[in-house]
Amino acid sequence: MKVAWRITGIYAAVGLSWIFLSSMAVWVSVGEPPGVASLLELAKGCAFILVTALILLVLLGRWEKELNRRGAALAESNRELTDLNARLSGIMRGSHDLIAAWDRNRRLTAFNPRYQVVCWDFFERDAKIGMSIEELFSHVPDRYHLFLECWNRTLAGESFVQLQSLTIDGDTAWFETSYGSLPGSDGQPSGGFHIVRDVTDRVRAEENRRSHAEKLAKTVETLTEANSELERFAYVASHDLQEPLRTVACFAQLIERDYGPTLDDRGRQYLDLVTGGAIRMHHLINDLLAYSRTTRSEGWIELVSAESACHSALNNLREAMDSSRAEVAIAPLPEVAADSVMLIQVFQNLIGNAIKYRKDGTIPRIQVSAERQDRQWVFSVTDNGIGFDPSEQDVFELFRRLHPHSGYAGTGVGLTICKRIVNRLGGHIWAESVPGAGSTFRFTLPLADTPRPIDTPL
Predict the structure, then answer these.
(1) How many CA atoms lie within 13 A of 104 on its CB side?
(2) What confidence tens digit (pLDDT) does each residue in 4-48 have?
(3) The CATH number of domain 95-198 is 3.30.300.10
């Protein structure tokens, strides 16, 4: 309000002075003292000056307040612009990316220190504000033409990203460049900018990953072929071994029939060893054939009742259950995505092992159950058998036996078959056991899904 009061005071002083001086001049020229009419005219003039001064004071006060408000807003905007400019300058100075901008005449209008350093390192030019792009890059024509195309596209209003490379002394560096246009007041591009990021490490890492992936794919292909050949060999060898084995068993029986009475104790012992070895070899070959069929069969994953599969396995084990008086309790089991024949084989092997490896004088008690965990079912087969120490060896290894042939029959293939089947069905299997306190075998299977062929890699 100071300005308003000053202007109003000057106006009032000048106006009143003018009226008084004019009245005095009239009175002097007339030569008579002022009358009532003259004094009234003087008072009217002073009143007019004072009223207009008051109006002027109000108007000037409002005008001054508006100017102060706009001045404060302008100062705030200037402060914000100053802070923004300081932040942007700090970002540009501290950025490891290369940042530069140019006008529509392709002259540099801004760049950060990193851009200046790289221009000097790669192009041996010191970038300066106002320098034309032709002056900066014309001595490297191949790069100049490449960049020129990009600059022209930005001046046409495009925004895009390009992966570009620079080679110095045989060493190639890769840069990912983001180009964009800067709009002007008329809506047309007034210039452009680009932000360059050094992605050499990323490109080299991707090339290394790609190379490793190709090597891994070739290795997997080689191993797959070798595995297939090995499986075919195992199948053929197992099948072809049956004939000479039958010959050995047959002649052993003929020797026992024709020469049994004449053999002494040592001869009978040798004959028993031959017969026992032939029987074990027969079981081993049959199990190897079963394992080979498991790995070679295609199968079909569909909605299967695990409870029905478990009961089918018990029917196949009826003789062993009756002879051992085994008690098997089956909790409600869900439907799962599996192959029914393979699932029956898993339950049959696990329950059969629980019956086989029982304690002397103890009735086998076996519990089969399942619980859901996330997107899978976890099945458990628990027994009260002799148990074992899982840390000593992998019971799922092919031909792995924890006990001599004289103690328990078997070839050590059953659990390997279970592991192969569970893996093919998309799950995994493991064992928990304590010597003398029984065992629990657990395996997972996915939730019921749409039918599909088994395509899980072996």
Answers:
(1) 10
(2) 788 888 888 888 888 888 877 777 776 666 667 777 877 888 888
(3) no
